[in-house]
Amino acid sequence: QVQFVESGGGLVHPGESRRLSCAVSGITFRIRTMGWYRQAQGGARVVVATISPSDATTYADAVKGRFTISRDNTKNTVFLQMNNLSPQDTAVYYCNQNPPLASNWGQGTLVTVAS
Question: Would you say the C-alpha torsion 11, 64, 81, 75 has a positive or negative sign?
């Protein structure tokens, strides 16, 4: 059974940093491109960052230079380091394969950026 369990969200102030984690099970993690996605209230879920099996990364323009995606294949975990957060980053953050497995979204972790 495929599972994505996100953690690390919470309330942060503008300019602060946060690190999200996602524990993955049920897939051969090391050979999969993984992604972080986010969905703001009333908006669509969009991809934020991806990381390939060879650690090649891509980022959405909105987060480029502020967010860093990484992975630990020994722990089947993908991370998202978020720096210099702004209120526009407020959203529920999800991880999944890229392209995503539509039927296997986790609960996500809410990040709220407010002063």
Answer: positive
